Amino acid sequence: MTVLVRPLRAADLDRVAVLEVELFGRSAWSYGMLAEELGALGRWYITAEAVPEDRVGAGDVVGYAGLWFDGELSQIMTIGVSTASQGSGVGSRLLEALVVRSRELGAQGVLLEVAVTNGPAIAMYEKFGFERLGVRKRYYQPEDVDAYTMRLDLPHGGGAPDPGHESAPTTTADVTTPDREPENA
Question: Which intervals hold domain N-acetyltransferase (predicted)?
Answer without folding.
Answer: 3-155
